[in-house]
Amino acid sequence: MEPRDPLVREVDAELKSMYPGSGASVIYERVEETGEPEPGPSIRDIGLPDPIVKALLRKGIERLYRFQYEAYRHILNGENTVISAGTGTGKTEAFLLPVIKRVVEGDGWNPRAMVLYPTKALARDQLNRFIEYTVYPAVSFAVYDGDTPVRLRRRIASNPPSIIVSNPDMLHTGLIYSPHVRGFAERADFMVFDELHVYEGVLGSHIHHLAERLKKSRASKPVFIGASATIGNPREFAGELFGEEFVEVRGETWRRGVVTHVLVSSGYMSRWSVTAQLCSILSRKGLRFIVFVDSQQLAELLTRILRTRHGVNVAVHRAGLPADVRRDVEAKLRSGVVDGVVATPTLELGIDIGALDAAVMASPPPSYTKYLQRAGRVGRRRRGYVFTVLGDDPIDTYYARMPERFFTQSIQPSVIEPFNEEVSKTHLLAYLLQVWRARVMDLPEEWKRVLGDLAAEGFVKTVGEYVRPVPRRARLFLMEHGSLRASGPVVEVVDSGRGEVIAYRELPVALLELYPGAIYLYTGESYMVESIDLSSKRAYARRVSGNASYTRPLYTVDVVDYDILAERRTGSGVRAAYARVVLELRVEGVVVKDMYSGETLSTVELEEPVAYRYPTRATLIKYPVPDELGARGSAEAFHAIEHALISAARVVCGSGLTDLGGVSYPSGDIVVYDAAVGGSGVAKLLYERLEDAEKVAEEIMSRCDCHDGCPRCIFSPYCGNNNQVLSRRKALYVLSKLGKARIAAAAAPLEARAGKPVA
């Protein structure tokens, strides 16, 4: 294809010139140009207070959109409401205007509402927008969170504004330790959770339990309001999060503005080389850009390549960096001190980072929801560009063959696992510290399930029909496990030269990054991991200069124990189950790769393997084993199917590259598990959509023209044995036999597993 847009043509020409014969080029271009959402009534005709009408007129708003008015009516009726509409279409006004109307008309103690954002930075950013609607003395706003100075907190507590802006983390800890936060939560008539799509997975499980604690702290329930630009199942998801019935208001899914979406093939080149070259072009053109990656270490790697190989002035923005470092990066991007920023999902939310010209996705995001969210960072004030770089992995190849399918895919449902036991423990202990004692029969079912474990470990005591915390032990537990952003313990990364903690990583992923001999990248610098102590939750690393390599672990995963929660037969007769499992992750070696080419430089076995056991949720599958394959052939076939299913889950379930892991056995048993401790809900969605995942997996493998396996079909960069014991052809042979009675699997999943597990 010949690109139409001048900038896109220039990008295409330079990539072909820089990498002749490699296939690196623009392969698809799509222009998104939208108008206004459907109009609703005049702002003068819906009973808004005069000062608010004047504030809207100053902003150039004379009438509401239809979806805004629908939300306005439902919220004023006291109905739990979830709003889903495109970026920049006015979701904030949809929930804020009815809340302000109730504040002006009502009486009673402030605050009348709490508006919660996923991060402190976003809450402060939105406060600037809210202040435009201040109506003295009736309507006022203030941020109350961990960064609010103590003196200001006291002032807010003694004379609260009508609307508190905060975050769920502050509500979580405040309900335990702060009588002021408890007072805010008890008095607020409205609890607003903006950016609702963020609250999926483990964070969503925490919000589910936090909402239960909130409701149990009050005499009556508040009106819950959720808002999101991109969510596939708003009403169902909000209902599961908050345990309440919701009405759904949908606006247009697109955003306002003109944006050119571009798919770029990296051909036979490394996606990182092509991404870096693309950013170099944007920098030379004077365009301000943001690059999204889905791994902290890949963010560091790409930043280093851009600085050292291309001389591009970029900064890195990711979780694990101190808040002041992230704020400094945001300020530099807004002011133009840096050309661009390489970010993990920390910047996919609506923090004001100025007018950006382009967003570059170094790989397709974990879900189409996240693509739309990230693409929404550009094109708000002038024409924007969104470049997505496709490499040679299975899903990139899938979309390279059918680019239209990328842009016409449906938004996947958001999911949580409300029965995550590790999360339940956190919130039961938090609630008991909050109220001191509770009747066992009044506790939610999820909390009752973990009560025995907490009692056995000495965190709670049961006296008659009541349970109470053991205060000191409960508080120590929450210090280690109390973060809403995690379900597993956190490992501190210590600079052994200075003795300072430089970063934090959550288990089990910490073990896959911080094993002895691993290269850990931090703010563009390389650190060699010397040791990790899982008992003290500390890893020690020393800075190394001149390093041009990165590492991958060699590891095994085995199922230590399991408990089947649900079971079924698929349409092809395969037996599948959803289960609670206990896994053992064991790192046994290190693969050292060249930072720029990705070539393997060496493979080293660890003198002492490092192991970690943890509970999670998983989809278990029992495939029939054709006798003619033999033990080795079966291991190759099922390992390949495992990889292909995990890849297919990115299309079918909207999972990220590292949301799921897998292990297979030559006996036809495959386990695809949530990578998060306790479970995130993605494995459950895969269990429900297994037939669809099998179809995509078969399509990925059958359309590849390699001999018997390659990065475009069954190889995975996260494979525990460096992509050994794999066969695309044997995997397809097994799938072709499904549904044939003569080799139907008789045993239940894992019931008769045999052979060495392959991760």
From TrEMBL:
Keywords of the record, alphabetical order, are: ATP-binding, Helicase, Hydrolase, Nucleotide-binding
Question: Domain Helicase C-terminal: where?
Answer: 273-424
Per the UniProt entry, what are the Gene Ontology biological process annotations, in alphabetical order? interstrand cross-link repair; nucleotide-excision repair
Where are the membrane-spanning stretches? none
| Gene3D superfamilies referenced in this protein's UniProt entry, alphabetically | P-loop containing nucleotide triphosphate hydrolases (3.40.50.300)
The molecular function GO annotations come to: 3'-5' DNA helicase activity; ATP binding; nucleic acid binding
Q: Mind telling me which Pfam families this protein's record contains? A: DEAD (PF00270), Helicase_C (PF00271), MZB (PF09369)
Show where the Helicase ATP-binding domain sits: 72-249
- Listed PROSITE patterns: HELICASE_ATP_BIND_1, HELICASE_CTER
Q: Does the keyword DNA-binding apply?
A: no
Q: What is the name of this protein?
A: DEAD/DEAH box helicase domain protein
Organism, by scientific name, is Desulfurococcus mucosus (strain ATCC 35584 / DSM 2162 / JCM 9187 / O7/1)
